[in-house]
Design brief:
single chain; 771 residues; mainly alpha; four-stranded mixed sheet; three-stranded antiparallel sheet; 29 helices; 53% helix; disordered N terminus
């Protein structure tokens, strides 16, 4: 065992004499065999240590000789951790690294690593335990009297005992690891050992926190299966002819005995009875799968560990927010979002479920079971009647030739409410599948399912009264699929020219689907987070949405960027003007032409279409186009070989910006003013709450091709930069500036432009003073 007290404490002095021998013996029994180093910064850490474990100075950690002639050849250990990553080192290597300074700076965190054996033992117990149970009782049934000879009570007890044993072993593992490390700390904590940045208890806290989640998951899964499978089976058996032909003794069923002793010989010897049984079993399987599928996706999809999701979220926050530099800064600033979305997670946490109530999953499954039972109950299955001949005891009443009517079991005679339920069910499938694919399936999704089914039922009853004409079934299907559209249709159907229903808006202001990339299912997902229109998205907390949804951060940033531009180029002003004109018309008669719909009011879609024809689709695109015009004007002064005074540069910049204003000015903007509308929009964009974070995301140093070549060397927060290879330098090379405003009187061939800023770099908006 090394005499080092703790990884990084290379200068620790051991006690002498008999006490030293006792201490070394205790350490040998309790010391961790390996350590985990976690990088808490968005930069990789690359530190060099000498033979004695000391951190080498910067000049001595390189190949270039320093003032004394020493080079990096004396480097004995290299400590390298990727950004926000982890490395595991054995104790003999960790004891030779002096990481105290990095821990005190908050750049790394150290914790003991569990052994591979104890980590995988509970999983091995579950796998091999159930395998042994299956083989044992399978052999019993094969060689000792079949299924009736198997002691089913003992079989059930053995199946339950296997996970219980694994749980006991896992608990002992966590308690043992926690106790051993505490004893190790007690043996080493003598006032000369630094344990700063060394965490303890993370695994056992995560283990204790995860157990209720897993137990709740098992309970909810059992309830969903019982409602959808057992409930539908009982409903089919009690409401069909099987109730008389195949009575079930439920008391014997719970005692694990044969519950079908009431089956008569007449039914057993009739082919039609077995056909009826197969048909209803097929019905049962179909509707059970259909009712259980949305809820089952919540349990069966491959969830990422919450710790992995949290690490990805932290990486995205580093890129979005320039004010934080370590994980501890993020935890301090965004504690509320972390607690609500991930809980108190340790780095070793294996939890895959969020905290929160999972009752919406059961409620949604119950409604789906009721809906599918109402559908399957409308099937008209022929009854069995006593046969006249002696060959068969029972025959089909509608088929003299005793042909099995398979299609009758799957051809319901739906009502209008049934078609509305099918519409809501199709929406449910696609909505849940979208969350399944994004790994964003959570109980909130099933609240949307519940509301969709209940609203489809209510609207179907109302629409069924208003309209009963041709295509009513198809109409009711889309009522269940998009109930908001059904409300608009009802308002138009019931309203009169001067009725009170005229005050009801025909559409929601600034719907999210006006933005590129947002469809009906994305809109429903954002509505679960309280965002119902473009204005709500433009001013929503991006960091909060990143933690509460699994929508990718680039997509959220792009949507917010679009929403900001949407509000500034018109928003819902045109629609509000139209509603005001309609209200005036209904009260005072026909309105004059000057009060027509949309008069002197910007049309957001026309303005957005005009900007997109120039390739501008977001607010940051518009500001970037403005900054590029300023750069072209500055570079043009160099191109023409003029004396680059401040007045000359401002003149060329004003010419470039003026041409940009004329091209981009909005078609519905007011005319005659001295200030172009597009200029005021550009000036006010930078005051939006999230615009600076969006610009930081798009121009962040973490997104550059040379980001990997910046690292921390363990001394302080100064970033060390390694010269990147040629392909990276070529990727960072600037674009050539091409002026738009060209002096045609200059016939000389212009010199080659020297670009003023590299590609993707941050350029200040040095806007000209004149127009």
């Amino acid at each position: 065992m090394s005499t080092e007290a703790q990884p990084g404490d290379h200068d620790h002095r051991m006690p002498v004499g008999a006490e030293a021998g006792v201490t070394e013996k205790n350490e040998e029994a309790t010391a961790p065999r390996q350590w985990i180093y976690r990088n808490l910064t968005p930069f990789r850490i690359h530190a060099c240590f000498g033979e004695g474990g000391t951190l080498l100075p910067r000049e001595r950690a390189t190949d270039a000789p320093d003032a004394t002639g020493a080079t990096g050849a004396e480097t004995d250990h290299v400590f390298s951790v990727p950004a926000l990553g982890e490395v595991t080192l054995p104790a003999e290597d960790a004891s030779r690294l002096d990481t105290v300074n990095m821990r005190r700076l908050g750049q790394i965190e150290v914790r003991p690593a569990p052994s591979e054996y104890w980590t995988n033992l509970p999983r091995a117990i579950v796998i091999f335990g159930w395998l042994v149970v299956g083989l044992t009782f399978g052999a019993w049934a094969l060689f000792f009297g079949g299924a009736s000879g198997v002691p089913w009570s003992w079989a059930v007890a053995a199946v339950v005992a296997v996970p219980v044993a694994a749980l006991v072993v896992a608990t002992v593992r966590e308690v043992r690891l926690y106790r051993r490390f505490n004893l190790y700390r007690a043996d080493r904590d003598d006032g000369r050992v630094s344990f700063e940045g060394v965490s303890r208890g993370n695994r056992i806290c995560g283990f204790v926190d995860a157990m209720p989640r897993h137990a709740a998951e098992v309970v909810v899964l059992g309830c969903a299966v019982a409602v959808s499978v057992v409930g539908l089976g009982l409903a089919i058996e009690l409401t069909t002819q099987l109730k008389d032909l195949l009575p079930i003794d439920y008391a014997r069923l719970f005692q694990l005995h044969n519950p079908f002793e009431g089956l008569t010989d007449a039914a057993r010897d009739s082919r039609a009875f077995w056909q009826l049984l197969v048909g209803h079993i097929a019905q049962w399987v179909f509707v059970s799968v259909a009712a259980l599928a949305p809820g089952a996706m919540y349990f069966q999809f491959d969830r990422q560990r919450l710790a992995s999701v949290q690490r990805r979220w932290i990486r995205e926050v580093f890129r979005l927010d320039p004010t934080v530099r370590t994980v501890r800064d993020i935890e301090a600033k965004y504690d509320a979002q972390i607690e609500s979305s991930f809980g108190d997670l340790g780095p070793d946490s294996g939890a895959r479920l969020r905290s929160g109530r999972r009752s919406p999953v059961v409620v949604a499954t119950v409604l789906l079971v009721v809906g599918w039972f109402l559908i399957i109950a409308t099937t008209r299955v022929p009854e069995l009647v006593p046969a006249a001949g002696a060959s068969e005891r029972w025959v089909w009443s509608s088929s003299p030739s005793n042909v099995f009517p398979v299609s009758a079991f799957f051809r319901p005679q739906l009502t209008l409410v049934g078609y509305a339920f099918l519409g809501s069910y199709v929406f449910t499938l696609y909505h849940v599948m979208r969350g399944y694919q994004r790994r964003d399936l959570h109980p909130k999704t099933y609240n949307t399912v519940v509301i969709r089914i209940l609203s489809a039922y209510a609207l179907a009853l109302v629409v069924g009264v208003v309209y009963k004409g041709r295509g009513a079934e198809v109409l009711l299907f889309f009522v269940g699929f998009t109930p908001q559209t059904a409300l608009v249709w009802l308002r138009e159907k019931l309203s009169e020219d001067r009725g009170p229903a005229k005050a009801v808006p025909l559409h929601e202001p600034a719907p999210l689907t006006d933005l590129e990339g947002i469809d009906l299912y994305d809109r429903a997902r954002l509505a679960e987070e309280g965002i119902n229109n473009v204005e709500g998205l433009a001013h929503a907390d991006i960091v909060d949405l990143m933690s509460s949804t699994r929508i990718s951060a680039p997509q959220l940033v792009d949507w917010t960027d679009q929403a900001i531009l949407y509000l500034h180029v018109g928003g819902d002003a045109e629609a509000r003007k139209r509603r005001e004109a309609r209200r005036k018309t209904s009260r005072k008669g026909p309105a004059p032409a000057s009060v027509g719909a949309g008069a002197a009011c910007p049309s957001v879609m026309r303005n957005l279409g005009h900007l997109r024809s120039f390739g501008i689709r977001t607010a940051s695109d518009l500001v970037q186009a403005y900054d590029e015009a300023l750069r072209r004007g500055r570079d043009k002064a160099v191109l023409l070989g003029e004396r680059c005074t401040e007045q000359v540069v401002a003149h060329h910049q004003a010419a470039e910006v003026g041409l940009l204003r004329a091209a981009l000015d909005l078609p519905d903007a007011p005319t005659g003013g001295s200030v172009p509308a597009i200029q005021t929009i550009i000036d006010t964009l930078t005051d939006e709450e999230w615009f600076k974070q969006i610009c930081n995301w798009r121009r962040s140093e973490f997104g550059g091709p040379d980001a990997w070549y910046h690292y921390l060397d363990g001394h302080d927060w100064t970033l060390t930069h390694v010269e990147p290879p040629r392909r990276v330098n070529e990727a960072m090379s600037p674009f050539v500036s091409v002026p738009v405003v060209v002096d045609l009187t200059d016939k000389s061939s212009p010199p080659k432009v020297t670009p003023s800023a590299p590609r993707g770099s941050r350029r200040p908006s040095a806007r000209p003073t004149g127009t």
